[in-house]
Specification:
Elements lengths: L6 H22 L4 H9 L4 H22 L7 H12 L9 E2 L2 E2 L4 H13 L6 H26 L5 H8 L2 H10 L3 H16 L3 H12 L9 H38 L1 H8 L19 H4 L2 H23 L6 H10 E2 L2 H17 L16 H5 L6 H15 L6 H21 L6 E2 H6 L1
Antiparallel strand pairs: 1-2, 3-4
Helix pairs in contact: 3-6, 3-7, 4-5, 6-8, 6-9, 9-10, 10-11, 11-12, 11-15, 11-16, 14-16, 16-19, 18-19
């Protein structure tokens, strides 16, 4: 008579059978069409598509660098501008390159000064292109983190985001503009905001501003996010950190000629060239250059921003006391943080005095979240994205390409104003109960 099996051996046999059954079921799902359909449409499974696209992006960027000629636009001018600093010039009135004077804040100087030395005084263009490939991969990782954390956009949309972004890849690895650097720091700052590391997120945001001023378009949204999340006192403290970083970066230039630095690096009235405009080709040049036209755009921008702020972002807040004490009773959802930052930026884009080709990177990766935050159908969203891509890839811009771009922007803005959907904030009492 065989000895009776011990309880532990029965347990081991049962667990191994369960594991075997689970492996078989897991393997069988690869033969079902529903599994692949779920991978493409279920936002909670976006990580699989994102991982594959990230690997593909490595080879795609290398292929672009090897097969497409580099186009010199601003790199040489950037190097000439920072070379002036290397030679001991800190007066912004005297720092210039072939394309004109230095018009970016001090963070730009330090970043391109590093690139100046790494690339053998700006001569090793190929090395610079590979450095920007690394920058692109960092940026897309941050973008994927933001989208995966929020789980709103279907995974198939990321295939379009990466593989159809002809202009975006060009801006990064074939043009070497400063816009991608600023946007990379911006997306990383949003990552830390989502992780509720407010001070680090604000410092990175300020760093992005120090590279290019367009990041300020999101300043109103950041202020509201901080106020609703950490209260007025800590908000002021973090704004102080942002300002302190700007001051530290600017100090050598302020000591040399403070007026020159302030006027040149944060010149809100700088005139743009009509030849490069993407969005306003549909109007005559004399209107494009008219100051009243600029003031009209600015006024419209501010009116819509104030309306959105009061009647969408703060619609449930009735009094000043509610606003100042909101952080004590609620946690902002990830969706709210992302939407406010992207929405504020998009409003600014709609009413820009001029959009140049490299400015596409300012909002390209945000469009997917914004469109899928409305009740717009997926097929319409893809059509809008395709038309916007067409507009930005039309060179030189035409009346038709500018008109299409404005119509698409108008559609997105109208949908955001009328059908915006954001995940509700969580009351702190409810969170404790969970």
């Amino acid at each position: 008579m065989p000895p009776p099996q011990s309880r532990s051996s029965k347990k081991n046999l049962s667990s191994s059978l369960n594991l075997s059954t689970q492996l078989k079921l897991h393997f069988k799902q690869f033969f079902h069409l529903s599994f692949y359909k779920d991978l493409l449409i279920n936002p909670k499974k976006s990580i699989y598509i994102m991982s594959g696209l990230f690997i593909l992006e490595i080879f795609l960027n290398i292929f672009i660098i090897k097969k497409t000629n580099y186009t010199e636009i601003d790199w040489k001018a950037y190097m000439q501008e920072v070379e002036g600093v290397v030679n001991g010039t800190y007066d912004y009135y005297k720092l210039k390159g072939d394309t004109g004077p230095l018009v970016y804040p001090a963070g730009f100087v330090y970043i391109y000064l590093i690139l100046y030395y790494i690339t053998n005084f700006g001569q090793n263009i190929r090395l610079a292109q590979y450095l920007f490939t690394g920058l692109y991969l960092i940026m897309i990782t941050a973008v994927f983190y933001i989208y995966n954390r929020n789980a709103k956009v279907p995974p198939y949309a990321y295939i379009f985001m990466c593989l159809l972004a002809y202009r975006i890849h060009s801006i990064f690895v074939l043009r070497l503009f400063n816009d991608p650097i600023a946007m990379t720091f911006l997306y990383i700052s949003i990552v830390f905001l989502l992780r509720r590391q407010w001070t680090l997120g604000c410092i990175l945001y300020s760093l992005a501003v120090s590279i290019k001023m367009n990041i300020l378009l999101m300043a109103p949204a950041l202020f509201i996010i901080l106020l609703l999340s950490i209260g007025f006192r800590d908000t002021v403290k973090n704004i102080f950190y942002c300002a302190l970083l700007q001051f530290i970066f600017a100090l050598p230039f302020l000591l040399s000629n403070p007026t020159a630095y302030i006027i040149r690096s944060f010149d809100l009235g700088r005139q743009f060239f009509y030849i490069w405009t993407v969005n306003w080709r549909l109007i005559p040049e004399h209107i494009f250059l008219n100051r009243y036209f600029h003031l009209t755009l600015l006024s419209t921008h501010l009116v819509i921003l104030l309306y959105v702020c009061r009647y969408q972002w703060l619609k449930n807040i009735k009094t000043l006391d509610d606003l100042l004490n909101y952080h004590k009773n609620h946690h902002l959802s990830d969706d709210v943080i992302i939407t406010l930052m992207f929405y504020a930026n998009f409003i600014g884009i709609c009413f820009c005095r001029s959009l140049h080709y490299q400015f596409y990177v300012w909002y390209y990766h945000m469009l997917y979240h914004l469109l899928w935050s409305t009740n717009s159908k997926a097929i319409v969203n893809l059509l809008i994205l395709g038309l916007i891509e067409f507009s930005w890839n039309t060179y030189p811009s035409t009346v038709m390409s500018s008109l299409i771009l404005h119509l698409c922007h108008g559609y997105v803005l109208f949908k955001l104003l009328t059908t915006l959907r954001m995940e509700s904030n969580v009351r702190k009492i409810e969170k404790k109960l969970k």
